[in-house]
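BUG: 3D viewer hangs when loading the predicted structure for this chain

Environment: internal workstation, default settings.
Expected: structure renders.
Actual: progress bar stalls at 90%.

Input used:
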Amino acid sequence: MDSVGVAAAAPDAGPGPAWQSKCPWGAPSTSISCSLADVMSEQLAKELQLEEENAAFPEVVAAAEGPFITGENIDTSSDLMLAQMLQMEFDREYDAQLRREEKKINGDSKVSISFENYRKVHPYDSDSSEDEVDWQDTRHDPYRADKPTTTPKRGFIGKGKDITTKHDEVVCGRKNTARMENFAPEFQVGDGIGMDLKLSNQVFNALKQHAYSEERRSARLHEKKEHSTAEKAVDPKTRLLLYKMVNSGMLETITGCISTGKESVVFHAYGGKSATEDKVIPPECAIKVFKTTLNEFKNRDKYIKDDYRFKDRFSKLNPRKIIRMWAEKEMHNLTRMQNAGIPCPQVVILKKHVLVMSFIGQDQVPAPKLKDVTLSNEDMKKAYYQILNMMQQLYRECNLVHADLSEYNMLWHDGKVWLIDVSQSVEPTHPHGLEFLFRDCRNVSQFFQKGGVAEALNERELFNAVSGLNITADNEVDFQAEIEALEKMNEDHVQNHGKKMSTFSSDGDPPIYDE
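Structure tokens produced before the viewer hung:
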């Protein structure tokens, strides 16, 4: 049998499988005529391939007819679609990395952290596993934490073994965490509710007390800054007083600061016109502003609380008003000295803690202090006798003791000595008046003895010359003991008989008092 016969007999074979009905080596039963363009067509090649696949694998084709979407159905020509697909894949990998970090950090710890707020899983992502918890499942608003639920008025919730009272540790801890939001805005409490923080009563009370203390401390600092004078500066209230003086025409202009001290700041100003004709304002004025901070006045109350002129008012005032009384005291002392003819600044006006006086100097240049000026022997001797005369006038005519007399509080101007800073001056009947006088005598005697004045008396001789007392003591210790004895007798008399009394006698005997 030749090969042609076998090939021809093959189609007549018995029944068999479907794929055996068409033999690739068999001759086609019919010939299909087509053009060269159809043979080279890509669409025709795809159709022929699909026909062969459908004939060879009919069950796979039937399953593909369902809703399954293959890559061929997606429009990959859109750049936006490709970008969204790549971003989705990147977000999935990022979230998986966050979950691994959470598991690594938390481990078996009871307190765990979560990066759920940083996840980028989209709501329409259907490939996330069921055991993963999205932030939308636990929080309705990721930017606002849920506050703990309050217990009802009856004080408990639940029944039987599941009952929970208002004293439960967890409930109280969450309530304390929520109550921290009532603290001052400056007190940073953090997001305790979001972390499910549970504060015990002891910790909450300590934090509450600390928050209140910090709030009061900041208020005190603010008040001190707004209501107190600083070096070379004034507070708003003092500035307002100065503005009123300038606006009223009393002062023409304020040029600047000329001196600073522990308790006051002195400014230079040009005088203006007075509202009344009987009062003349000098062409140049010195404005003494007493500092309203109390640090420098804590140890200086002894100069004012035992002065009978201010003793009754001292106990009734708060510490800040004492500073105004200090300025008032300097005004009264300067007025006494001016009436006695002692060279000193002339008082213009007193407004609260601001004292306006005449300026000792010329053309905004203050007169030099006695410690800073270089005097000849004649001028030094002249200054010594002038100060001796002023101390006697101050004691006998003004009934005052300077209490801080030294070369720092004496100015040299127009060939003579001027006394300044008499706010601490007291009367000789003050419980410590004679002690202050002896200290002034020591300062004056030491300064002029160092300056080469041969006629300068020592402190004990100067004390007797100024006070008129005749205390005869061989050494300084016995001299001060007699001074303290005189002050003690004077204090007892004041307590037993009243405020008014005569000055000390000059015959060396104990003081004689006239009621």
